[in-house]
Amino acid sequence: MKANIEIECTPEEARSFLGLPDVSKANDIYVDTVSKAMKGVSNPDQLQQFAKQLAPMGQIGFKLFQNFVEGASTAATGGSKPSKKD
Fold first, then answer.
1. Is the pTM here over 0.90, yes or no?
2. CA 5 to chain centre
3. Residues 27-65: pLDDT tens digits?
4. Could you give the CA distance from residue 41 to residue 35 in angstroms, rounded to a whole number?
5. Got the DSSP string for the chain?
6. From residue 47, how far is each of 29, 39, 44, 54, 84 by CA, in Å?
7. How far is residue 32's CA from residue 30's CA, in Å, rounded to a whole number?
8. Which residues lie below 8 Å from residue 74, measured CB to CB, with a gap of 6+?
């Protein structure tokens, strides 16, 4: 048996329902900073350099962020952290 449930709500309502923090202020600051920085970019080389500055640790930084998100979702659901099987 398959059941589909559709819920219409705003992102703020969804965050509140799931118990996630409101990060709109941090997002506004980030978007403003990136927008100001992008105004000075006039060619692809500058854009590539800017992208490198945003993620100075590259793949390691991405992995750290991914672990942070996984940990936060585990804590939000009250579950235990899944074990890694090598």
1. no
2. 25
3. 888 888 777 777 766 777 776 666 666 665 666 666 776
4. 10
5. ----------HHHHHHHHT----HHHHHHHHHHHHHHHTT--SHHHHHHHHHHH-TTHHHHHHHHHHHHHHHHHHHHTPPPPPP--
6. 20, 10, 5, 11, 37
7. 5
8. 80, 81, 82
Give the Cα separation of 72 and 20 in Å (integer): 9
Cβ pair 40, 46 in contact under 8 A: yes
Tokens representing 20? 């996630």
What's the one-letter identity of residue 33? T
